[in-house]
Design brief:
The protein has about 120 residues and is α/β, with parallel strands linked by helices. It has a single domain, classed as STAS domain (Transcription Regulator spoIIAA), CATH 3.30.750.24. Helix content is about 40%, strand content about 25%. It is built from 4 helices and 5 strands; from the N terminus they run E-E-H-E-H-E-H-E-H. Strands 1-2-3-4-5 form a 5-stranded mixed beta sheet. Helix 1 links the parallel strand 2 and strand 3. Helix 1 packs parallel to helix 2. It is globular and about 35 Å long. This is STAS/SEC14 domain-containing protein. It comes from Clostridium magnum DSM 2767.
């Protein structure tokens, strides 16, 4: 199953990153794959839709996500995340205050896509 790909939703290209149910090793692989994918896009152009349902994380994966965001921040226009637990959502919102990318925690994939449609 592809976990890093562009899809067209109502005439907007959205990069989908599906971290749901991944093993720790596969999380790192997907971060590397998507980092290369994003770095080939124009700056401030990527709308990302991120599924973190049942994400298995530890301090190393959290640090890898932080590094990933720092490396891709210039390319991403906005990110919408779904599949987060209440506490994961709180942690992401706290972290998002320290970066320039707008990040929205959503309850569903449809809500996330709808929010991304309105990003200018």
């Amino acid at each position: 199953m592809k976990r890093c790909y562009f899809t067209n939703y109502k005439n907007r290209n959205i990069l989908t990153l599906n971290f749901s149910n991944l093993s720790r090793k596969d999380i790192f692989k997907l971060l590397d794959e998507s980092r290369l994918f994003i770095s080939k896009q124009p700056k401030n152009s990527v709308l990302s839709l991120i599924n973190i349902t049942n994400l298995k994380y530890d301090i190393d994966t959290v640090n890898a996500f932080k590094e990933y965001i720092n490396n891709t921040e210039n390319y991403v226009l906005a990110s919408a995340i779904f599949g987060a637990s209440f506490f994961e959502g709180m942690a992401i919102e706290k972290f998002s205050q320290s970066i320039s990318i707008p990040i929205k925690i959503c309850k569903s994939e449809l809500e996330a896509k709808s929010w991304l449609l309105n990003v200018k």
